[in-house]
Design a protein that fits this description.
alpha+beta, two-stranded antiparallel sheet, 2 helices, 24% helix
Length: 76
C-alpha cells in the first residue's frame, strides 16, 4: 500500500475484538461526536450497529440511547 491509500476516511466492518478494512484510510468518524479517530487509536465500536466511538464514555452513552431498558436499570 502506498501513502495515498492511507489518507482520508477509512471504511471498516466491525467484528468481535477486531475490524476489517473495507476501504483504506487514516481514520474513522465517531458515530456520536463526529470526531476523527485515527485507526491506531480506535478501541470502541458496536458490532451490532457497525459504529465506531471516540471513547468508552461515548460508547456507553450510545448504548444507553439505543437500549432504553438498560438506561432505566442504570437510572439514567
Amino acid at each position: 500500500m502506498n501513502r495515498m491509500d492511507m489518507s482520508g476516511e477509512a471504511r471498516l466492518r466491525y467484528i468481535d475484538g477486531d475490524f476489517e478494512v473495507l476501504k483504506p484510510g487514516a481514520f474513522v468518524r465517531c458515530a456520536v461526536t463526529g470526531e476523527a479517530i485515527p485507526l491506531d487509536m480506535l478501541r470502541y465500536w458496536s458490532v451490532a450497529r457497525q459504529e465506531p466511538y471516540a471513547s468508552a464514555a461515548v460508547s456507553l452513552q450510545r448504548e444507553l440511547e439505543a437500549n432504553p431498558r438498560l438506561a432505566a436499570v442504570a437510572g439514567r
